[in-house]
Amino acid sequence: MANAPLSTERFRLWPETPPGGPPAANRKGTAEPTVSVYRPPRPDGRGVVVFPGGGYVFVSQVGEGANIARALAPFGITTFVVDYRLPVDGWNRRYDVPLQDAQRAIRLVRRHADRYRIDPKKLGIMGFSAGGHLGSVAVTAYDDEVYKPVDFADTLSARPAFGGLFYPVTTLTVVPPRSQSRRNLLGPDPAPSLITRYSAVERVTVRTPPLFLCHAMDDPIVPYWMSTGLAKAARARGVAVEMHLLETGGHGFGASLPPDLTGSRWPEMFALWTKRHTR
């Protein structure tokens, strides 16, 4: 990581109090969501908005944020890491809060594409674990109106050009024993309609952008069928999808797999794949 990029800028998502605020006083996460910008030495026009994981009770800004930016920098990809709000922090309509921040981040980056030297048509997303759930919702629910427009940026599309999802939660209809994402996002007794609304597998359409999925088969928290289920739904609707099932890697590996594991090459594979799908 000798040539790792530095965060050159951080900006707020909302000009005033975010939708659904103010939050609880004893919150776990931020009350002012931000985006950290990581510029590569030689940007090539591609950009990716990153949603780190953390089970919707924290946001892994380093392991699944800054370190991801460092892994992608050699390939010319500009990275925008989102410190999104947490649904457990007392916001109104808690379940919409992460998606509000996700859509707003995509739109704001598009609004300032020239400033960041990216092509707005080459802006995608990445998500990890619970951030992978948020990413899966971002690629399937980009037209959902979850907040009132606040400025010109909100007239722009929130549809990503592509989606990279790593050990993601893709459905809330089934709850793995060790995953708390559904409860933390929706609360203890969510309505069936809300469960479906935030289950990406149920919402894939022909307009869903191309997907890149990566999951370890020995993941003890989010089982790999979360990825295979989404891949199956995408293929059934003609959506381009590439999936890598790793023999080993566990959960939360980010960009830190040992070099003797094939999964450690995912940044290069992802970079090649995004280049193919943004021509």
Corresponding CATH architecture: 3-Layer(aba) Sandwich
* Model regions low in confidence, pLDDT < 50 over at least 5 residues: none
Could you give the distance between the termini? 28 Å
Strand order in the sheet with the most strands: 1-2-4-3-5-6-7-8
CATH homologous superfamily descriptor: Alpha/Beta hydrolase fold, catalytic domain
Main structural class:
alpha/beta
Q: Mind describing the biggest β-sheet?
A: 8 strands, mixed
Q: Give the radius of gyration.
A: 17 Å
Please give the structural blueprint:
Elements: E1 7-12, E2 34-38, E3 47-51, H1 62-72, E4 78-83, H2 97-111, H3 113-116, E5 123-128, H4 130-140, E6 163-166, H5 181-186, H6 192-197, E7 211-216, H7 225-236, E8 241-246, H8 266-276
Parallel strand pairs: 3-4, 3-5, 5-6, 6-7, 7-8
Antiparallel strand pairs: 1-2, 2-4
Helix pairs in contact: 2-4
Region (Disordered): 1-40
Domain BD-FAE-like: 47-232
GO molecular function: hydrolase activity
Quick description:
By secondary structure, this protein is of the alpha/beta class. It is built from 8 helices and 8 strands. Helices cover 27% and strands 16% of the residues.
Question: How would you describe what is shown here?
Answer:
The chain is α/β, with parallel strands linked by helices and 279 residues long. It has a single domain (7-276), classed as Rossmann fold (3-Layer(aba) Sandwich), CATH 3.40.50. It contains 8 helices and 8 strands, in the order βββαβααβαβααβαβα. The protein has helices spanning 62-72, 97-111, 113-116, 130-140, 181-186, 192-197, 225-236, 266-276; strands at residues 7-12, 34-38, 47-51, 78-83, 123-128, 163-166, 211-216, 241-246. An 8-stranded mixed β-sheet has the order 1-2-4-3-5-6-7-8, with helices on both faces. α7 links the parallel β7 and β8 (241-246). α2 packs across α4 (130-140). The longest helix has 15 residues, at 97-111. The radius of gyration is 17 Å and the shape is globular. The model has no long low-confidence stretch (mean pLDDT 96).
